[in-house]
Specification:
about 35% helix; alpha+beta; 2 domains; about 230 residues
Length: about 230
């Protein structure tokens, strides 16, 4: 395994290399965001990381028919595990519980909140002391029918007038996904209303474009004094 990848490795014999890693980590006010880029990891890297997974997560990864899905499943879990080690000093592999809508939580550590996301270019893990949601999306062409289905009139107008409509759409879409993942209740009501002011007044929202690739990243976190960026 290349040294630049070993930050999320579980093998004890390479622990001397742990300080060198390729992930982007952001830490701000009680939360940490880890980003891993898919093409930083070879097939051999993924195989080695797969061997270190708990059996239930390995089975999840192996259910994917395509390599991309397996890679995302493996790397997202390893981002979570390394974050738990760094931030909380937790070395054991976490198990998941799921609510009725499929939102995962940490069985052994229910006080720690996390959210995982992936796209074709990257995977991400957000850790927080409060409820949180994360979404990553790679830039891609946007169908007008999708804009009509997911955006209200004001949002659709912003997208249509933007210099880069695809990016404008993804900035709004990832924010909606992040809010829905934080709530953990699935889509209740009209998805066009997810970002209505009264619906997000208790949340802090942040959206940015990652420094590598063309990936838009949004996170939402429960906050006493919410801010939107």
């Amino acid at each position: 395994m290349n040294k630049k990848h070993v930050f999320f490795a579980l093998q004890a014999d390479i622990s001397d290399f742990l300080p060198t890693f390729a992930a982007m980590k952001q830490e701000t006010r009680g939360k940490e965001l880890y980003i891993l880029y898919m093409d930083d990891f070879t097939a051999r890297d993924i195989d080695r990381l797969m061997e270190g997974l708990p059996s239930w997560r390995r089975q999840q990864a192996q259910r994917f028919r395509h390599e991309a899905g397996r890679r995302q499943c493996v790397l997202a879990y390893e981002a979570l595990r390394q974050g738990l080690r760094e931030r909380y000093g937790i070395a054991e592999a976490p198990d998941f519980d799921y609510n009725g809508h499929g939102k995962p939580s940490l069985r052994q550590f229910p006080h720690i909140h996390f959210s995982l996301s992936h796209c074709r270019e990257a995977v991400g893990c957000l850790l927080s002391n409060e409820a949180c949601g994360l979404d990553l999306e790679a830039r891609r062409p946007v169908r007008e029918s999708l804009v009509r289905y997911t955006m209200n009139e004001e949002e659709a107008s912003l997208i249509a007038s933007a210099e880069e409509p695809e990016t404008a759409f993804l900035r709004l879409w990832t924010r909606k996904e992040a809010v829905l993942k934080l709530r953990g209740t699935g889509i209740q009501g009209d998805i066009k209303d997810v970002l209505a002011e009264e619906s997000i007044s208790d949340l802090e929202l942040h959206t940015s474009e990652l420094p590598r690739r063309q990936v838009v990243c949004s996170w939402a976190i429960k906050a006493e004094q919410a801010k939107t960026k």
